[in-house]
Amino acid sequence: MSRKAAVVALTALAPISWGSTYVVTTELLPPDRPLFTGLMRALPAGLLLLALTRKLPRGAWWGKAALLGVLNIGAFFPLLFLAAYRLPGGVAAVVGSAGPLFVVGLAALFLGDRPTVRTLLTAIAAAFGVSLVVLKAGAALDLVGVLAGLLSALSMSAGTVLTKRWGRPEGVGALALTGWQLTAGGLVLLPVAFLLEGAPPALDSTHLLGYAYLALGNTAVSYFLWFRGIERLSASSVTLLGPLSPITAAVIGWAALGQALGPVQLVGMAIAFGATLAGQWTPKEPRRSRAAKTFGAAEDMGLNVSMDLKSPAVRP
Length: 316
Description:
Layout: H1 3-18, H2 21-28, H3 34-53, H4 61-74, H5 76-86, H6 89-96, H7 99-110, H8 117-134, H9 143-166, H10 174-197, H11 205-232, H12 235-239, H13 244-257, H14 263-279, H15 290-310
């Protein structure tokens, strides 16, 4: 396995893990507390990573970490849950699948990555495949829900592109950067959850087990792998791993909850998965001819010689 393939495989574990969020939320957690669930995912995970890394932002990174935390967590979670409440689950997932298209546009604006026809077609194919997997006939649309879904996708997309643009400070690992963002996002969620949902619900051992999984595997580890992937891959490659989340959710729903998977859903999975794979392919540079390589090497040697002759260490 090549180094890039290994990075892609590890990064893909993040959206695969996020695909389990629905079944964990519905089967293990208190009902109708989405913001509290988002808070319990983000803040404990962020504080744990801060305790492990013992690094805090410095200088301009206080503002950068706060903004990234808001985009990737603090604004993304409430908008996502609002879309989920106002729209049928399939419609919300389809609206959210616009993320790769947002990333393509934002990457061109902030990273100078010119979108190619192949990238645009791949993003469209991914959204179409997801729609076949999750969209049901007669699904109703709600303007507020659609806007919330689009804004949630835009928020996460902007966070992805800015994470790629800013990288991380020298001497700071991806684990610490993940902790900064989760903590900032969790602190934003804290007042919102209490204002809109009231005091925390009573929790039993099953609830605590579910929250522990969401905070550790589903958030701390998954977001670390996601941000690490953003650092090593192109923004479009990372975001095109996103369709793995609804695919995983559909497979878990079929295996654990007895939900049906018909031919249309299977075709959608194949299209979305194919688009995900296509999003990781980068065309190889054309090989230079042997004569061109020789000429290039000669030029390099000439350049090196001329530099050596100009060096004060070389005596006439």
